[in-house]
Specification:
Length: 465
């Protein structure tokens, strides 16, 4: 009996040591969870002894131990197949083999909806981008790629009983886009009218047919000559691996069907491109005309070939905030901003990097105040002086504009923005201004902050920079 106990204990500890000892002969090179793995910590840093070495080493071991993917997959299969639950933090296990991205859950439940001011911040910032581009003769279009569960929520698990509201940020935003006259292509409306399912079951994005229809909607909205794929022949192959599937079952993915159009494209990539998810991609097409700059996210991966095939020159960027100088550098005649529905709150926090427009505003001195601005910061960012701050709530209505008067002279409109705060309070009262750095001296600049509507405003704060 004692011998059996010794054998059992020895086997138990040997099994426990396998992940550690196996690190000497195996290497965990990639993450199946769409994130970068922790690096082995240094004992000494530039600040001296690394007091966080032990917890950082623990995190490293947790992410690099031998046979990690095998164990993660086995655990996921056990929980997914037998209990119908997901073991990956970012994945929701749906019914009938469907997987959903957890970052879209708040949208689906109607929780923590954007405030009216935040919706205005997004729409008005887009209108300011559009205004600046149209002055240069550049066409502008904004679009939103719908969350998968916004279109195909019938395979979501028990969450229906937890819905707080039927409202959605995307639907609420459309009202403000219309008020601000933003050129908008409604992909949600187009896709929701289709009888066919156009998203992958085990991925968070549309399939190639959904992407072709989205591209046709965008190009038609721009009145850009293009090829319609509606009647083009295609081949179906069961060779697509979904991002959610890889996150949940890194070594036991289930390939699903993907559509491949038989028609050959005529564009070519410039330089080396690893995949369509690269941060910056340039394409050329000798048989087409026009120049496109498209600010996009991961939904743009499948969109890219269809858009690139319609323009002589195209540039696709995943950079945020949007660098509007890239539009001039690429000599673009068209700019598209594509954003996933789940990222709309982030749009309110990331105004584009571009010079703020001058405004002719009537300033009412009778209503001036001095207590309306706080947390003002100023820094040089490239050739721009970036000024940010926050406005006291009592001086902001839903559609109030924010202006800055420099040295009692010219007035510029700032981008309204949301600002993340640690206390969790409402944070939609921020502003961001980009000025030509040569307009301000090194110090002693008199800055006045104004708020108002309909080309009239009043001073709510003054400071010296």
């Amino acid at each position: 009996m004692k011998k059996l106990q010794i054998i059992y204990i020895t086997a138990f500890f040997a099994a426990c040591l396998v992940p550690s000892l196996g690190m000497a002969v195996t290497k965990q090179e990639t993450s199946s969870e769409n994130r970068r793995l922790a690096e082995f910590p240094k004992i000494k840093t530039e600040e001296g002894i690394n007091t966080q070495w032990l917890p950082e080493a623990g995190e490293y071991f947790q992410e690099h131990f031998a046979f990690r993917n095998e164990l993660v997959t086995a655990n996921a299969l056990l929980n997914g197949k037998f209990f119908g639950v997901s073991t990956a933090d970012g994945v929701i296990q749906g019914t009938d083999g469907w997987l959903y991205y957890k970052d879209s859950l708040q949208d689906y439940l109607g929780e923590e909806l954007l405030s009216e001011r935040s919706l205005f911040n997004i729409a008005h910032t887009l209108s300011m981008m559009q205004e600046a581009l149209e002055k240069k003769g550049v066409q502008f279009l904004f679009t939103v790629a719908p969350n998968k569960n916004s279109l195909y929520g019938e395979n979501m698990p028990y969450y229906d009983s937890l819905k707080a509201s039927q409202e959605k940020n995307l639907i609420n935003l459309q009202e403000y886009l219309k008020k601000e006259n933003v050129a908008y292509a409604d992909l949600y409306g187009m896709l929701s009218e289709q009888q066919e399912i156009l998203y992958h079951k085990r991925d968070s994005h549309w399939n190639n047919k959904g992407a072709s229809m989205a591209a046709e909607t965008l190009l038609s909205s721009l009145k850009k000559e293009h090829i319609s794929y509606q009647d083009e022949p295609y081949t179906v192959k069961t060779d697509f691996t979904g991002d959610l599937d890889e996150m949940l079952y890194p070594l036991a993915v289930t390939p699903e069907e993907e559509i491949y159009y038989d028609k050959q494209t005529t564009f070519a990539y410039v330089g080396e491109v690893g995949s369509n998810f690269d941060p910056r991609i340039t394409t050329v097409n000798p048989v087409k005309s026009g120049s496109l700059v498209m600010f996009r996210d991961s939904f743009g991966n499948a969109l890219l070939p269809f858009m690139a095939d319609a323009y002589a020159n195209a540039y696709f960027s995943r950079g945020v905030p949007y660098q509007m100088s890239e539009v001039d550098q690429k000599n673009a005649d068209t700019v598209i901003v594509e954003r996933a529905e789940r990222f709309l709150p982030e749009m309110a926090q990331s105004p584009p990097v571009m010079e703020s427009p001058k405004r002719q505003v009537t300033v009412s001195e009778e209503e001036s105040a001095s207590d309306g601005v706080y947390a003002v910061e100023s820094e040089m960012q490239g050739t721009f002086r970036k000024i940010t701050g926050r406005i006291e709530k009592k001086y902001l209505d839903t559609e109030s504009r924010i202006y800055v008067r420099v040295n009692q002279d010219k007035i510029y409109e700032a981008f309204p923005m949301d600002i993340s705060t640690e206390d969790g309070k409402e944070n939609n009262n921020g502003f961001c201004l980009y000025l030509d750095g040569t307009l301000l001296g090194t110090d002693g600049n008199q800055i006045e902050i104004l708020t108002g509507k309909d080309d009239s405003a009043h001073v709510i704060g003054e400071l010296t920079l």
